[in-house]
């Protein structure tokens, strides 16, 4: 289908209603329906069930249980080098590079505002000006849990309401400001090298986004919400490198944001490269020692 026509059809359809309907179908307790749908999905998308903690489709109570399946222990080894940041998810690198003049590269001819992406927080955006970004697209066949690129302490979570356009290649290349239009959850962490943000971007048919500290995030009232998790709020949450952060119920995109000079993306990686969760994607920059 022509990409412009595909985007036009998405504009016309009731995105949130369709996605919520998909949620209820995916949570259906009907064993007959679930088993048939799960088996069809595995065959259609060539899902590798040998690495799943429960490889038998009969072990899943509904489709979302299967879609957010855990993997066997050791299936995704975490890069051990303490200088390495790792991919937060299985998928394909959509784009990666530097944040220039407050703009993040989306696709040829398209950039989007960093400040808009994170919910309009100008002071927070300033910490990432001239920084670095990596956008990772999760396809239907991928493992759909999102993990920590580096150890950090959660400082705040920002829910940003928005559309639910598809995030596939056709839409990414045709629709300006895609990732700053769609519903998303912005997770802000404090790390040894400074701030780090992981953005979980919703998409068409993505019925919900969950985090390990709140469960289901999408609120009944679709308005921007911020929640502090600093020590002052008496809710410190510390997560190790590779620890689970959240999950998508149906596929989408994760965006990692790093401050200027915090790290360097590995030179062998570029747009289109497949990655797996736990694989090294960047090396921390050496921070000059402060004179005594």
3D structure, described in words:
Residues 288-292 have low confidence and may be disordered. 21% of the residues lie in helices and 30% in strands. With 292 residues, the chain is of the alpha+beta class. The chain has 2 domains: 3-67, no CATH class; 84-284. The strands form 4 sheets. Strands 2, 5, 7, 8, 9, 12, 13, 15 and 17 form a 9-stranded antiparallel β-sheet that branches. A 4-stranded antiparallel β-sheet has the order 6-14-10-11, with no helix packed on it. Strands 1-18-16 form a 3-stranded antiparallel β-sheet, with no helix packed on it.
How would you summarize this macromolecular structure in one to three sentences?
This protein is α+β, with helices and mostly antiparallel strands and 292 residues long. It is built from eight helices and 18 strands.
What distinguishing features does this structure have?
8 helices; 292 residues; 2 domains; 9-stranded antiparallel β-sheet; disordered C terminus; 4-stranded antiparallel β-sheet; single chain; alpha+beta
What kind of sheet is the major sheet? 9 strands, antiparallel
Strand percentage = 25-35%
Radius of gyration: 19 Å
pLDDT under 50 segments (min length 5)?
288-292
Blueprint (SSEs and pairs):
Layout (H helix, E strand, L loop, with lengths): L2 H10 L2 H12 L4 H15 L17 H5 L16 E3 L4 E8 L4 E5 L2 E4 H4 L4 H5 L5 E6 L7 E3 L4 E9 L8 H6 L3 H4 L2 E8 L2 E8 L6 E4 L3 E2 L8 E4 L9 E2 L4 E6 L3 E6 L4 E3 L8 E2 L4 E5 L8
Antiparallel strand pairs: 1-18, 2-5, 2-17, 3-4, 5-15, 6-14, 7-8, 7-12, 7-13, 8-9, 9-15, 10-11, 10-14, 16-18
Catalytic activity: a 1,2-diacyl-sn-glycero-3-phospho-L-serine + H(+) = a 1,2-diacyl-sn-glycero-3-phosphoethanolamine + CO2
GO cellular component, one term: plasma membrane
Keywords: Cell membrane, Decarboxylase, Lipid biosynthesis, Lipid metabolism, Lyase, Membrane, Phospholipid biosynthesis, Phospholipid metabolism, Pyruvate, Transmembrane, Transmembrane helix, Zymogen
